[in-house]
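We emphasize that the prediction below concerns an isolated chain of 263 residues; any contacts that depend on oligomerization or on bound cofactors are therefore not represented. The input was used exactly as deposited, without trimming of termini.
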Amino acid sequence: MECNDILRKNLSNNEMLIGTHVSLSDSSVTEIFGEIGFDYVWIDMEHTALSKELVKQHLLAARASGTAGFVRIPYNDPILAKPILDIGADGIVFPSVCSREEAQKAINSCYYPPRGIRGFGPNRCAGYGLVEQADYCKLDGDQVFKVIQIEHISAVENLESIVSVNGIDAIVIGPQDLSASMGIIGEMEHPLLRKKIGSIVRTCKEAKVFVGVSCGSNESFINFMIDQGVNLISVDMDYSFILRGALEVKKMVETLKSNRSVL
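Result of the prediction step, given as a token string:
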């Protein structure tokens, strides 16, 4: 069974999926996350220096380790989405969507005409030609997990119309940018932010659209999101895991060294 099929099946069974973010160039990072058992990896092109070639290597590592590979493109643009779809991303994340029109543009970029505007040129996504063109076109954009990211207060105000767009698989909340648009940047405990997040989750559930969050490792905030009943939760970042582990081990060695010198 394909990674995407497993992911959709688990979501339909009301399982909460856990993912993490990838920013570093070495695809071994993605392979490790897959071996650990993350349900998906979020390969980020918006805030990193990752090229399309490096993204492809991460997708190969994700496939090899049995996890789904999502790619967040830098901007909601069909030109940016097209090569990511063609190299076989399991899912695509469109950042900072604020209106129904912007959401429709994102979804249209995932489908061939007449439903959408995607230019034809699949390569890895169609097995480099091993999948018959007619068979691939039957699937069109439905095989890709399409994620719309809500990161601005104006998007919250337009959310009912956004989730009405056919083809959206999930809404993912970006709490940092959302808090910034509310004038309370980084205040994850702020009651106004949490109230808005609660309204986002409710609107998505009423529309029967899966909803998730992209966040760090703050236990209180993660616990809040779990209590809200999110379907997907993307936590922390590759370099953060390295940083914390390195600091922890370095501190341990320094403590041992300090104790030895006292003797």
